[in-house]
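Can't attach files on this board, so I'm pasting raw text. These are the components:
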Amino acid sequence: MSDVTQVPEARVLPAPRSAASTIRYWPWFAALLISAVLPWLFYDWQHARHAGFVVSVLSQTGMMIIFALSFNMLMGQAGLLSFCHSVLFGLAGYSTVHFLNAAGAGELPVPMELVPLLAGLAGLGFAIVFGYVATKQRSTAFAMITLGIVQLVTTAATMFHHFFGGEGGIQTDRMIGRSLFGLEYAHSIEVYYLIVAWMMIAAIGMYFHTNTPLGRMANACRDNHERAQFVGYDPRMVRFVQFALSGFYAGIAGGLFAITYEIVTFDAVAAPLAANALLMAYIGGATTFFGPVLGAILITLMQSGVSLMSNSWLVYVGVLFIAMVTFAPAGLTGIVLEHAPIARAGLLRRLVLPYARGLLPGLIVLLGFVGMVELLSFLTIGQAQGKRFVLFGSTIDVHGVMPWLISLVFLVGGGVWLRREAIAFKRVWDGLTDIARQGDAPMGESG
Amino acid sequence: MTAPGLSLVEVTKNFGQTEIIRGVNLNVAAGERHALIGPNGAGKTTLFNLISGRFAITSGEIRLDTVRLDGLPPHRINRLGLSRSFQITSIFHRLSVLENIRCSLLWSRGYRYSFWHALGRQRALNEETERLLVELNLAERRDVQAGLLSYAEQRALEIGMTIAGGASMILLDEPTAGMSHSETEYAVALIRRVTQGKTLVMVEHDMRVVFDLADTITVLVYGRVIASGPPAEIRANPAVQEAYLGALAA
Amino acid sequence: MQVGLISLLDGLVYGMLLFMLASGLTLILSMMGVLNFAHASIYMLGAYFAYQIDQWVGFWPALVIAPVLCGAIGAAIEVWGLRRVHHNGHIAELLFTFGLVFIIGRGVQMTWGMLPMPYRVPASLDFPLFTLYGENFPAYRGFMLLVSAGMLLATWLLLKKTRIGLIIQASLTHPGMVSALGHDVPLVFTTVFAGGSFLAGLAGVIAGNYLTTESAMADAMGPIVFVVVIFGGLGSLAGCFIASILMGMVQTFSVVIDYSFADVVKPLGVTIASNDLLGEILTIPVSRIGPLVPYALLILILVLRPRGLMGTRET
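---
Top answer:
C-alpha cells for the assembled complex are below.
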C-alpha cells in the first residue's frame, strides 16, 4: 500500500478522446444515402412518377425529425418540459408564408434554398421573446408558463387576421422563381430533397451543439442547478440561450412545413402539435440524441399508416404512451441501451429464446386488444357513419358473438400467457445482469 | 491571485420567527485554514449557505476582502472567487466524471455561454481536465457516470469541482463525512494539496481532521460564536469543552 | 345595469363550476405533484354518465350515481396506474395522465358516438327563477349555484372538521412530513384522487346539460381550469376559490363588453385603423378577445409571482 500522502505522478496525457472527435461519420452518410434513395424504392417505373403518398409521408417525417430533435434540446438535454414548442414551429411557419408571399411579389430576393434559414431566424426571434419570460422559472413553473403561452398564441391565432389569417389560416405559393439550383419546386420530390438537405444540416448542428460549453452546461443545469451556479454559471442564462437555439431549429422545421403545404393554420401553433413532439421524443428515448429521430419516424408512420386503417389510432397511441411511461421511461433507445452491459459481456445470445417465447403471446394480446377496440368502434361510430368492419376482404359482423368472443379470449388468454413469459424473462434478465456486473466490478479498495 | 480574507459582521438569520444565526462575527485571514465546528444544529451549514448566497441574510454584512457578498446571487459570488462544496454530494450525476471536471473549468477559462466551441478540440481545457483527474485519482474512472461512483470517489470529485475553477476562497462542508479512516487520510492530503496558497473555511465534525488541518478554529453554538483562535487555545477553552468537546483532554 | 347584475350572477355560477373542477385538481397537484391532464376528461365522463343514467332512470339518481362512478374511476386510475408510475418521477406521472386523455376521449366517442348528446335540463328545474330588467334567470342556474355551494361547504367541513381532512390539509403543504409521521400516504393519495374525480364528475353532471355534452367538452374546459389552479397557487384552496370566481367573472363580463381600445380613445380624437396587426389588436372588441385574457393573466402571474395568488410553495 503506497503512502497515500504522496502526489500521484502527473503524467501529461494526450487530449482524451471525446465524442466529437470520435464521430465516425459513417452513420451520417448512411442516413443521407437512405433518405435520398427511399422515394425511389416506391417509384412507379411504368408511369414514370413518384408515389405521392410515400413522398408525402417521407417529407412529413423529415420535418418531424427536426422538430422532435429541437424539442429534445429542451426536454432531454436541459430538463425543460415545454408545452409551447409548437408555438415556435408555427409562428415561424406563419412568418415563412409571409416571406414567400413577399418573395413571390418580388419584394424579397431570397432563393428558396435559404428560406428555411429565414424561418429559423424567425423561430429564434420568437423564442427570444417567449423564452425571456418562460426561462425566468425552471421545472414545473416553467412547464406551466409554456402551457399558458401555447393557449395564448393558439387563441390569438384564431382571432387576428393580418398575421394569422384567422381561423382559415394563410396561404402562399412556393413557386417564387428564385433558386440557387434553378429549381422550380413544382414537384413534391424536389421539396422532399430540400427537406432532406435541411434535416441533415439541422441534425448535424444540434449534434454539434451537444458537445459545446452551452450544450454541456444545459445538461449540468438539468442535473444540478445549484452546482452549476457554483461552477460560475447562471442557470437562467443557460436555459434562456438553450431555449432560443431550440427555437431556431424548430423554426427551420416550421419553415419547411409552410413550403411543403403552402398553407399554415392555427393547428401549427396548437397544443396537439406540441404534444406530438413530446410523444416522439419520449417514445424514441429522451436520454439519447437519436431517440427523438426514432420516435419521429415511428409516430409519423403510425399517424399516416394506422390512421388510414383505423379511426381509433389515438387509443393505440394513448396505450402505447402509457405502456412506455410505466415500463420503459427511457424510451425505445433506452431499452436498447439497457442491453449494453449484457452485450458487452457477450451474453446477448442467451436472450434470444426468452424474447422468442414472449413474441407469440405478445402478438395474441395485441390482436385481442385491437380486435376489441375496432369492434367497439365499428359498433358505435362506424354504424352511425355507415361503415363496415372489413378484414382481409371479408366483412365482420359486429353484432355477432363470435368476433367479440375471439377477441376477448385472445386478450385475456394471451395476457395470462404473456405474464408468465414476462416473469420468466425477468428471471433470465436479472441473472444475466448479475453475471455481466461481476465482470465490470471495480477493483477492491485497499485499506 | 492572492488569497482573500473573509469577514462577517453581526450576521443574523431568521427563518420566520426562529433565530438561527444570532449575530455572528467572524474573521478569516488571507491564506488561513479555518475550521468551523460546533454541535449539530448550531447553524454551521446555514452560515455557509449565507456566505455562498444560497440564503439571504436578515441583517449584517459579509465581505470577501472589501467586496460585499450579501445580496448577490450564488453565481456572482462564485465568479468573485468563492467556491463551496456541499454536505450532501452535489455533482452532475448523469454526466461522466470527465465532463463534471470539464464543466467546472468552463467559466474560469472564459467559455461563457458559447455554443460554437467544440469541446473535444479545446487542447488547454482538456489538458487541465486530465491533470485534475490525475490529481484526484479519478483518471481511471473518467468515463464513468458520476452518479455511479463510490461515495468516497464522489466526495473527491466534489472537492475537485470546487477548486477547479481557480477560486481562492474555498468553503468545504463536511468533506470527510462518512469516510473510512484511510479514505479520510487521503482526503485530508488532497485538501491540503489543492488549497495550497488559498483561503480555506471548513465545517468538520472529525476532530482529528480539524486539529490536523486547521490554523484557526471557530466554535459555533446555537447560532453564536463562543470561541475563536488557534487549536491549542480552543482545546483548553473551558466553555468549548463544556459545550462541545466534553472531557476531551489535550 | 341590467347587464351587470345578470352577468354578475352568471359569472358567479360559472366561477363556482370552475371551482368545483379546480379544487379537485389543486388538491391532486398540491399533494401529489401530479399535473392531472385527465381531470377534464373525468368531468366529461361525468356529463356522459349523467346523460345515460338520465335516459335510463332519471336526473336525480344521475346526480348521485354519476359522480360516484367518476370517483371510483379516479381511485382505479390512482391505484392501478399512477402508483406504478410514481417511481419514474413527476414527468412520467404527467405523461401517464396525458395518455389517459386520448383513451378516455376516444372511448367516449366509441361508446356514445361523435354527435353531442341531447342531455337536457330536467323539466322540474326548467323555469325562470326570477326576472331582472326583462332578463330571465333560469332556475337551473340557481340549482347549479346551490349544488356547487353545497359541495363547497361539505368539502370545507370535511377538511376542517375531520381527521382525514386534517391529514389532507397537512399533505397539501408538507407531504413529506405527513409521510414521515407515519400516515398511510398512499391511502390519502387515493382518497384525494377519488375525491377530486368525484367533484369533477359532479361538475360534469350539472354542467353537461347547461353547456353541451360532447366529446370536445374536455378540451374546452381543461385549459381554463389549469389557469385557475396555477393562478390560485399551490396548496391553497382559498386562492383557488378566488381565482375561480375571478376567472368566471372575467370570462362572463368580457363577452358583454363590445368596446375595444380604439373605442376608448376615439372620443379623444384618436382614430385607429385596423389594417395591420397592431391596428387589429387595438380595434378588436373585448368580447372577442375575452378568451385570451385568462392566459395572459396566467403568464403574468407566473412571471411576477410564481407561487400564484396564495400559493404556499412553488413546486
